[in-house]
Amino acid sequence: MRWHSAALGVISPAEFIPVAEESGLIEELGDFVLEQALRDLRRIHEVAPDFNMAINVSVRQFGNREFVSGVMRRIRDADIDAANLELEVTESIMAQPIPEMELLRDAGLQLAIDDFGTGFSSLAVLKRLPVTTLKIDREFVRDIETDPADKALVMAMIAVARELGLELVAEGVETEGQANYLREQGCGLLQG
User: Of the candidates 35, 41, 110, 115, which lies 20 to 30 Å from 84 by C-alpha distance?
Assistant: First the structure.
């Protein structure tokens, strides 16, 4: 999502999402994104039926009692298989138990922890979450070719994901060297 302002130009989500979170507008924004994404996914499925889509969701949205039923209703209305939709939440969700995640997972949705390794990571909590995917934050990918600490941390994340049976996506892949290194280590999904 990008905000194209006539007065300010293109505004990054890194700038406007925190404001939307603080003001409470994130729920309306999230509803809009979900509606649009499902419309787009339905059109995409006309030519690529196996296409999956990931949508970022705010932790605050999970606090709304209507969130899960609203997501499921929209999926039914769009005639989309829930398995084709992945909801991404930042790892701050690990700071508190979210029972709604279990309901979404039981309904067939894929759940991903975005920006893994940058904040609230707790392996004790991770093992209890019904997630299907971990997304390695770009902070660990940027210098992976030259920084031994980044290499070690990424290798550890790959091992954790493998042992827990989770998909792993490396974010912020910008060079062939980064891509090659990540593939060699067993991270097959790259974003960037």
Answer: 115
